[in-house]
Amino acid sequence: MTTFQNSLGDNSAPTSDQVAPRDSSPDQPTSIARLNQTIKASIERWGAIWAEGEITQWNVRGRNVFGGIKDLSSDAQINIQVWSSVLARLTDDFHVGDHVVVHLKADYFTKRGSFSFQVSTMRHVGLGAQLEKLEKLRRQLREEGLFEAARKKPLPFLPSRIGLITGASSDAEKDVLRNAQLRWPQVDFRTIHATVQGDRSVPEVIAALQQLDDDQTVDVIVIARGGGDPQTLLGFSDERLVRAVAAATTPIVSAIGHENDRPLLDDVADVRASTPTDAAKRVVPDVGEQRAIVDQLRSRLTSRLQQQVQHGIQQLEQVRSRPSLRDPDALIRDREQEVFLSVSRGRDLMSRSVDKAERRTAELRASLRALSPAATLARGYAIAQTTGGTILHDAADAPDGTAFTLTLDSGALTATSHGQTASAIMPDEK
């Protein structure tokens, strides 16, 4: 204490900033700033170290990373900081769950009194035995086609019953049931509780899956868990469970709720939900949305029918406005006079044609009568013909005893010649 007083040159007591932490007392405490500076100076003497662990946090803020690394065999953890300059030199991408070796230097921030480690370099140690096994299984299942979209079964629009596999009284169960009932109050569930982590999880989940898959009333099955660290989710990457899901005939929804580390169940399930709440939204339609869709469709149908009826009325009015339908008798009246004139003209033409033909016929009849032998016979003449039909022009052609026929104007007589008479009229005497 005398040293501080002498250095100040007076008898005043030293301030808290001047008291070293090891010399502090109730009467002369040290300052927080002096304490933090002493801690920082002590930590800086540690130097840089190499450490091995698993990334538990990896939060990017701006261009820097604030994260955490835990021990591989215990719950011990440290906070780390990766500045942007260091992050730019790293060639690998790092995620939560990665097994890494990191070069660290302790850092104490005196303003807040916070302790963390600054990362100067980091590299993957490897996937580890478990992760390597999972990656090998993932490649095998992908080659077998179990991840192909073509083999995935579609979810029913409105399942009559939903099968749910989850932990007893878990938040995942509550989320699925509550959100499904909010969306569709009449939804029906058959829930089977199973252990969702540890050695018993895989056999119990498989047994529950087989029960629900054999139930003909179950239309879709949801396997739900509310997330967790990669170690606790290993059961959902077990080959036995994955192959049982692939062999199921009922559509299956995986709702493990772990975004950073996808278990193999997510890849082989027919639908992957990011959370149990999301699973409820995927398997059950929203009754409000469906009613809105029905109302919208009904409105569109009504509008369409009204348009069709209005269009039909307009077409009917257009047809009715045509002259031929507005006044059908007008067309008949317009044609009636034309028909009458045509008929009259036809009758006149026919009458004149008949009269002309009658006159011509009379003329021909008169000419025929004038030239006909019957006219000569009508004047008293007769035609003498032998029995052979030869017309007698000369009395010499009919010697005594010649039989001949006299054709008169009316009828004919048979006669026999008795010689020629002197009183016969000669042609040149006429």
Secondary structure blueprint with pairings:
Layout: H1 2-8, H2 32-44, E1 48-61, E2 64-70, E3 77-82, H3 84-89, E4 99-109, E5 114-124, H4 128-143, E6 162-166, H5 171-183, E7 189-193, H6 201-214, E8 220-224, H7 239-247, E9 252-255, H8 264-268, E10 271-272, H9 276-283, H10 287-320, H11 323-326, H12 328-371, H13 373-378, E11 383-386, E12 403-407, E13 412-416
Parallel strand pairs: 3-5, 6-7, 6-8, 8-9, 9-10
Antiparallel strand pairs: 1-2, 1-4, 2-3, 4-5, 11-12, 12-13
How would you characterize this protein structure?
By secondary structure, the chain is an alpha/beta fold. 42% of the residues lie in helices and 20% in strands. Strand 9, helix 8 (264-268) and strand 10 form a beta-alpha-beta unit. It starts with a helix and ends in a 14-residue tail after the last strand.
List keywords for this structure.
single chain; 430 residues; alpha/beta; OB fold (Dihydrolipoamide Acetyltransferase, E2P); Rossmann fold; 3 domains; five-stranded mixed beta barrel; five-stranded parallel β-sheet; 13 helices; 13 strands; rod-shaped; disordered N terminus; disordered C terminus
